[in-house]
Amino acid sequence: MAKSESEITWKDLNIGCIVTEPGNASAYRTGAWRSQRPVLDTNKCIRCGLCYIFCPEGCIKLDEKDQYFKADLYHCKGCGICAKECKPKAITMVEEEE
Amino acid sequence: MPKRVGMEVSIAVAETVGLCNADVISAYPITPQTHIVEHLAEMVANGELDAEFIPVESEHSAMSACLGSSATGARTFTATAGQGLELMHEVLYVASSMRLPIVMAVANRALSAPLSVWGDHSDVMAVRDTGWIQIFTENGQEALDNIICAFRMAEDKNVLLPVMVHIDGFYLTHMIEPMLLPDRVDVNKYLPPNDYPLPLWPEKPVAMGDFAPPVLYSEAKKAQEVAMGASKKYILQHWAEFGKQFGRNYHPVECYNCENATTFLFTMGSFSETAMTAVDELKRKGQNIGLVRIRLWRPFPYAELREALKNAETLIVLDRALSSGLGGPVCSEVKSALYGQPKMPKIANFIGGIGGRDITPEGFIEIINRGIEISHGTKENEFEFYGVRG
User: Going by CATH, does the domain composed of B254-385 fall within 3.40.50.920?
Assistant: First the structure.
């Protein structure tokens, strides 16, 4: 999308709001819905990947550099499932304050 | 050459959909629409019409199947009535918002309860805000002519909105009338192939009917409304070209005996022809009444209506539906269109001809005289039922 959502005028929309760019749902910042964010304590994390398996949004990915599983905060909605499922309790949900 | 036929209007409508080369028909049978879709199903089954007929389990599904079919660029037709139109309700909004050029014949019928399969305009009025272009017809010829026009209007790239053609249940659908069934060659000449600009097509993927967050919904609605407003110009153009080619002319607001009138009767649909008989009868007796009929219900023809009623001192509006707690829905819109005009007529509103109750020419004369009486009175009178016993 050339323009951000808030810059799009009614004249910019396709007929019937048809989306012609496949897969552009990923551009939608669902991270804005979040009231709590997951914070990872790498001292407790055993890199088991349970958070990656349980994340309903598929927004936890393996960081190739340090081999930890991390949430992509652009998409993470802050549901807290990763923190709930984490066996060594390495993930804490922290209030978003901004 | 057109063929002069004596035919039931429903059958003629189905034949006309065939002449228009519809690709997909998805419908559920409901009285008084049944003969239209039964005949289409026969035409498809007999190989007379090369189309897909999708028999569905409800009207909600019928309209939903139409969405999918129209989205692929197929010329899509359906028909329904009364309760069926109500069951489609939420999908009607989707069709117009997605700008899908579906054509639907509505065999206008009352709404339950008490159960009534007979004609009135309750079903039309319940869907007036759904974003469809809506046309009223008065006889069989108008019904089939406007089916042809409807495909051309809907599929025009400057329009791309679904169109409803209202055909009074029983009063029109089940009448055998003399009509001119146009020649296929002429229909093909008038109606170019459907060429939807962004169809569902594997090589060029698109997503339709997605969601819009608060930051986009208003923009989407504004775009849709601009298209609806702009559609009138093209509707007029397509009617004018139909008139040039087929010799029958249609206008958003139709006038009869209006030239020197100051008292007007306002109707829509098939009852207008009975009203004409009443107007003729009164004229013979020296009473001059103009008859104004609304043909284009959506987009609402403000300018044409104001022009037609510019000399009106008394206006009598017959509604064949009741907006409970308000009065006549058509009258309420007519009043709002005339508000603020330099010369505003006194207006009397009648609710009549509902659930299949007939209004005869003598009945219209009664309505006119009572309307004049009301408008000369000083008592507040928002509306009156016509012809109710007791």
Answer: yes
